[in-house]
Amino acid sequence: xxxxxxxxxxxxxxxxxxxxxxxxxxxxxxxxxxxxxxxxxxxxxxxxxxxxxxxxxxxxxxxxxxxxxxxxxxxxxxxxxxxxxxxxxxxxxxxxxxxxxxxxxxxxxxxxxxxxxxxxxxxxxxxxxxxxxxxxxxxxxxxxxxxx
Length: 148
Description:
It contains 4 helices and 3 strands, in the order ααβαβαβ. By secondary structure, the chain is α/β, with parallel strands linked by helices.
């Protein structure tokens, strides 16, 4: 990765700015204790305090309202088994956009599809969209493909 500082800064800007995070150490201590019991394999590694606890509470701009009014130029891309962004969230967003959007799902796991994913159907859909502006005519379910 050529510039990890920019990558992490932009990641925290999105992750920390999209929702409110606890800002008291005792809240994280409680979360760690609960997760240690609830998830013994992973332990409390993901419940500990991080940069978002110190992120400013004031929003720079109001949250964007998603709706079915506006240009019909939205392509959503989602793995069926994404551990960080569940499919149900993409489906909910797709419904909110109405006919403005098309959802392409790939029968695979992992977080992230394009351009490094191995699903040809999903990758081709995105490449067509970014090079021509054309989305699939309807939501598209891309079948699993064998690993190389």
